[in-house]
Specification:
This protein is mostly helical. The chain is 66% helix and 0% strand. The mean pLDDT is 89.
Length: 157
């Protein structure tokens, strides 16, 4: 079954690709980690629902810097779907809502500053009423972080 799932990750049908991602997830975290290099490229899939599936599965098994960088890049791609079913909604909590450097001090986490800023702006502006997410960051983000994203914060206030 595993060889067939891996083959389907590259299938021409987006539904097959999505199904293969979920199929690998059902095989367990060890299998997902073994084949992460085959799943990460699907964060750039032309179909949002495939990218969302990749975000969800990757987020369950790792939050390493390489995966976070791939998800940051997926976050800034122009959305095809709209909230709450967009890649940005899927990456919001994974990238900025957990307890790791990117969530606590996004501009000091070692990623390209422009990419981090754009991802944060895109996430914030996707759901301007997203008070719950913003409230979760209020006690965590430094004044420097708030200053760097003051424009979108002012817009959604």
């Amino acid at each position: 079954m595993l060889p067939r799932l891996l083959e389907c990750l590259g299938h021409e049908s987006a539904r097959y690709r999505e199904g293969a991602i979920h199929g690998l997830a059902a095989c367990g975290p060890d299998i997902v980690l073994q084949h992460l290099s085959r799943i990460v490229p699907l964060l750039q899939d032309p179909q949002d629902f495939v990218r969302i599936a990749a975000v969800e599965v990757i987020a369950k098994v790792t939050d390493d810097a390489e995966s976070q960088l791939a998800m940051l890049k997926a976050t800034v791609v122009a959305p095809v779907a709209v909230a709450p079913n967009s890649v940005r909604n899927a990456t919001q909590g994974v990238l900025f809502g957990k307890d790791h450097a990117l969530a606590r001090t996004p501009f000091e986490a070692g990623f390209d500053e422009a990419l981090v800023r754009q991802a944060l702006e895109d996430v914030l502006l996707t759901d301007p009423g997203g008070a719950k997410f913003l409230a979760s960051r209020k006690a965590i983000w430094s004044q420097d972080t708030v200053r760097r994203i003051a424009g979108p914060l002012t817009f959604i206030a």
